[in-house]
Amino acid sequence: MKLRVTYHRRVDLDEDDVGQFQKGGLLVRVPPPPELALFDQVELELVCGAESITLMTQVVQTTTDALAVMFDRTKTQPFVAAAVGDDEDLDPEHERGDTAKRAPEAHGPQLAKQIQQALHGNKDERAAIIRGVNKQLHPFVLKNPQLGADEVLGFAKMATIGADLLAQIAARRDWAARPDIAIALVRNPKISVGVAVKLLEHVAVADLRQLAKDSRTRTPIQQAARKRVI
Q1: All structural domains of the chain with their residue ranges
Q2: Is the four-CA dihedral 73, 78, 81, 83 of positive or negative sign?
Q3: Could you report the per-residue pLDDT of 119-133, keeping only the tens digit for each?
């Protein structure tokens, strides 16, 4: 039997890593077949963006709609460290690997060429990649040495950019410390609440007041903005 869990958002992978992988297991939300017994060996594939890993695991618990497997937690560490989400706003997919259908992935010379363009291309090429559908390329744009803060500000305002990329922008202190970039990230509905709250320390007082009053601001961010104003 094969199992597959696909993570579209890096935040979901991190949550399972801390809550389950590091404890040596994972709850896979698929109904176990009748013939499956405790301590059977099953193959588990974990997927996040272009990264994947296959583990041999042992069944330690079953319910009508899920099964818990146990594995060597150290084997998932390289996968978690390298994984970048595909930025789709989708929950993790838990599937039987023998019936699941994998989305086609880009490989070969064409992908390598696109990565080089993201890393070294000009402003128009960078903009085209960020607007493009292949979100695997987006993190490489952030590593382009020609990338300017004004471009980053534009990215921070884009609702089509995923939470993972916004978090990567926020992690760069030289970008996040700019009040205009900080407020753009905070106002972006795709950014996680935790990241947005941390960014408030770089937001101008006038913008904090506006966030505190705006009913469209997510409640935890609104409350944190009010505290900073007070």
Answers
A1: 2-96, 108-229
A2: negative
A3: 999 999 999 999 887
3-state secondary structure of 126: helix
List Cβ neighbours of 40 (8 Å cut-off, separation of 6 or more).
Answer: 1, 58, 59
Q: Which residues lie below 8 Å from residue 65, measured CB to CB, with a gap of 6+? A: 29, 30, 31
Query: CB-based contacts of 213: which residues, under 8 Å, 6+ apart?
Result: none
Instruction: Round to whole Å and give the CA distance between 132 and 7.
Output: 20
Contacts 24+ apart (CB under 8 A), 213-222: 218/193, 220/193, 221/186, 221/193, 221/196, 221/197
Please give the model's pTM, rounded to 2 decimal places. Answer: 0.54
Looking at domain 2-96, its CATH class is mainly beta
- Report the chain's terminal Cα–Cα distance, integer Å: 57
pLDDT digits (tens, 9 = 90+) for 57-106: 999 999 988 999 999 999 999 999 888 876 666 888 899 865 544 444 44
C-alpha span between 189 and 218 (Å, rounded): 9
As given in the structure block, the two tokens for residue 174 are 């030289």
Count Cβ atoms within 10 A of the Cβ of residue 131 and give its class: 0-12 exposed, 13-18 middle, 19 or more buried. exposed
Kind and range of the H or E run holding 1: none
Residue listed under structure tokens 């961010």: 221
Question: How wide is the angle at C-alpha 176 spanned by C-alphas 171 and 177, nearest 5°?
Answer: 130
